[in-house]
Amino acid sequence: MKSNILKIVLAVVVIVLGYLLYSSIMKPIRFQEELTKRNGQIVEKLKDIRTAQTFFKQFNNRYTSSFDSLFAFLQTGKIPVVKMIPDPNDTTFTRTINDTIGFIAIADSLYSKRPGFNLEDMSVIPFSDGRKFEMKTAKIDKGGTMVSVLEILVPYEYYLFDLDQQDVVNLAKRQTDINRYPGLKLGSLQEASTDGNWE
User: Fold this and answer.
1) What share of the chain is helix, strand, coil (3-state, %, to 5)?
2) Which residues contact 161 (CB under 8 A, 6 or more apart)?
3) Residue 148: exposed, middle, or buried by beta-carbon count in 10 A (0-12, 13-18, 19+)?
4) Cα(52)–Cα(26) distance, rounded to whole angstroms?
5) How does residue 108 score in pLDDT terms, banded at 50, 70 and 90?
6) Neighbours of 1 (CB within 10 A)
7) Can you tell me the distance from the alpha carbon of 116 to that of 108, in angstroms, rounded to the nearest whole number?
8) How many domains, in total, are found in the chain?
9) Inside any domain, residue 31
10) pLDDT for the residue numbered 77
């Protein structure tokens, strides 16, 4: 009888230890999978913002730090629809003539092929409980020329707040230890660049 009880107790201990071992192995894997998923969705929004800001800068010679201004521009700004035709006087068929055949709203040009796309959602950071991206702009001197710059910072704590906080702290420390921003970053206020730190 005692040996049967001992076998049951040992079986339970083995099962519990196996589960704890499995959990300890899977915990960082699950964290990394969730981080990758969230980073992917945020990066897509940052790319959308970068594209919109590029158009805004082409028309206004500067970036904007306001989503209201950016959205108004995207909804009211228009870009030409250009038809390229071969130059009839060119026998080599290498020159073309550009013919403007109309205008289209910038928002329609950029997002009309994306079903369910909502322009106002572009300002909200995914997985952040409703936080909005904060865009900072400035002008910097580059070789005697004033250049408009843009920066958007999305720290890990904004979109990983509901995960294990020790994992988030460890991730942030690993990034700062190698002089990288602890989160996602687009552009810079010190350099004329709109690169993302994920690229």
Assistant:
1) 50, 25, 30
2) 128, 129, 168
3) middle
4) 39
5) confident
6) 5
7) 13
8) 1
9) yes
10) 84
| 8 A C-beta contact, residue 67 and residue 132 | yes
Of 198, 164, 127, which is closest to residue 31 (Cα–Cα)? 164
pLDDT at 22: 63
Q: What is the pLDDT of residues 12-60, one digit of tens each?
A: 777 777 766 766 666 788 899 999 999 999 999 999 999 999 999 999 9
Give the structural domain span for 125. 2-187
Decide if 124 is inside a domain: yes
Token pair, residue 197, equals 């730190």
The C-alpha atoms of residue 80 and residue 55 are separated, in whole angstroms, by 13
d(C-alpha 176, C-alpha 181), whole Å: 6
Tell whether 194 is covered by a domain. no
10 Å Cβ neighbour count for 63? 23
Q: How far apart are CA 174 and CA 141, in angstroms?
A: 33
Q: Which residue is listed with tokens 């106002």?
A: 120
